[in-house]
Design brief:
Rossmann fold, Four Helix Bundle (Hemerythrin (Met), subunit A), alpha/beta, seven-stranded mixed sheet, six-stranded mixed sheet, binds guanosine-5'-diphosphate, about 450 residues, 15 helices, Gyrase A, domain 2
Length: about 450
């Protein structure tokens, strides 16, 4: 596609070693000719693609000395001709050079427009473009890994394989509908049903992976609960490695849920300190208790903290908290281990001290194990809710098709199969609406 030239600064705002100004379109080389003066005898129009050339770059009111590289269509990120200037990494320098490209006819690129062009030119699928965004926005190693798998078309390849098989089934249905013969049709339906069952099994196991994927993308929600003064805030601070929650020795002063995020084993964990869960006449504290209850309900894992110091120990209040976290993966922590010597008669998973740091590493290990199991799945790439939703709908259509095999004529089963194909096409981009595509590229920054 021959589109007008767009330009943007590809590097983040601020000072840095290098800044990159990027142009893509039908003839960015024409613009480069008027604002880049190569060192030596070579002319811009004679540039070999994918080679760096040093020279002077025109910034309008000033010049910089930097590099220029030409990517030739279609072997470029966008599938169009691309020119990139590398200049010294000052904001005014990059902005001056960008403005110069505008003066010479380039248009300001919109959010994610380079990647959008790449998608429209068939250089990558929609899921792959989303993988790029996931990598850039990723806050943990696991998110970056998952984004990279998406970017390199791991999900798309799987989905395309499913689509191809659905298409073959559809072609078979069309033939049978056009040339109906009773006994053949019966056998055909049986074969079709078998094929659909196999497909739905594969889809289901793919969909299941979202359990892990969701936790990778959003982070594991950890509710640290227990009665007041057992050391929840102190433990949270220890886990975070800095003082975030307010620590106080007056019971019931952690009024709000305090959040902090840490990485364990390359994955994100959102920690919530809950206000003391107990009956209280204090209105503000009651609000805190309500929040605590809602956090505990939505948590993936609960860390139950009890007090080990001589005046502490399990009581009714502890039992009430334990009741609330019933059914969730639970880690029982006995804190203040520095205040007691007897660690034998407890059913705690780990003994900790927020003061000395004892048991904190083990607590982190337990958090990972309880959230993901001891085995860590490196191949998790189903992290986008959009993809999960499309797969789920595709699977529903297949289930409908399987049910229809018992009663309906072939062409009606075909409708369900086609619906499944369409739902899968939303992942690759083939059937994604303008609105969906727009929304996806809105998540990008300018220059990507
Ligand atoms: P929370 O109400 O459960 O959040 O408890 P805090 O974190 O506010 O701690 C209550 C009190 O216990 C504070 O005075 C802390 O300094 C103290 N504390 C917390 N953890 C420990 C610990 O492991 N050892 C000792 N000796 N004191 C602790």
């Amino acid at each position: 596609m021959m589109e007008e030239n767009i330009a943007a600064i590809a590097t983040p705002a601020g000072k840095g070693g290098v800044a990159i100004i990027r142009m893509s379109g039908k003839n960015p080389l024409e613009i480069a000719k008027k604002m880049f003066y190569p060192a030596g005898k070579i002319k811009v129009e004679d540039f070999e693609p994918y080679r760096m050339y040093p020279g002077r770059i025109d910034g309008g009111a000033f010049e910089d000395y930097g590099l220029c590289v030409y990517f030739k269509a279609p072997a470029s990120y966008t599938g169009e001709d691309i020119i990139e200037f590398q200049c010294h990494g000052g904001e005014s320098i990059a902005r001056g050079i960008l403005k110069q490209t505008f003066r010479l006819g380039a248009k300001a690129a919109g959010k994610g427009e380079f990647t959008k062009r790449a998608f429209l030119n068939g250089k990558l699928s929609l899921a792959s473009a989303e993988g790029v965004a996931d990598m850039i926005n990723g806050e943990s190693e696991a998110e970056v890994k998952a984004g990279y798998l998406l970017y390199t078309e791991k999900l798309t390849n799987k989905v395309r394989d499913l689509q191809a098989r659905l298409k073959t089934l559809l072609a078979g249905i069309d033939v049978s509908v056009d040339y109906p013969e009773e006994d053949i049709e019966e056998q055909h339906v049986a074969e079709l049903k078998e094929a659909l069952c196999k497909l739905t099994k594969e889809l289901s196991s793919l969909i299941e992976a979202y359990g892990v994927g969701k936790k990778i993308k959003s982070g594991v929600t950890v509710a640290i609960c227990g009665k007041p003064n057992t050391g929840k805030s102190s433990l949270l601070n220890r886990l975070l490695g800095y003082d975030k929650a307010i620590v106080s020795s007056v019971a019931g002063t952690t009024r709000d849920a305090v959040e902090g995020t840490i990485e364990i084993g390359g994955r994100k964990f959102n920690l919530y300190d809950t206000a003391g869960v107990r009956e209280s006449g204090d209105f503000i504290e009651n609000i805190g208790i309500e929040r605590a209850e809602s956090i505990i309900k939505s948590a993936d894992v609960a860390v139950f903290v009890a007090d080990m110091s001589p005046q502490g120990g399990m009581d009714e209040e502890d039992i009430r908290v334990l009741e609330m976290v019933k059914g969730k993966p639970l880690i029982k922590v006995l804190n203040k281990s520095d205040l007691t010597h007897d660690k034998t008669e407890t059913d705690a998973d780990v003994h900790t001290s927020a003061v000395t740091g004892e048991g904190i590493l083990r607590l982190k290990e337990l958090l990972f194990e309880k959230s993901f199991g001891a085995r860590s799945e490196d191949a998790a790439f189903l992290i986008e809710e959009r993809h999960f939703d499309a797969l789920r709908r595709a699977n529903e259509s297949l289930q409908k098709g399987i049910a229809a095999c018992e009663i309906a004529p072939l062409d009606l089963i075909g409708i369900d199969v086609k619906e499944a194909w369409d739902a899968l096409g939303e992942i690759t981009g083939e059937t994604a609406t303008e609105a969906i595509i727009h929304e996806i590229f809105e998540k990008f920054c300018v220059g990507k």
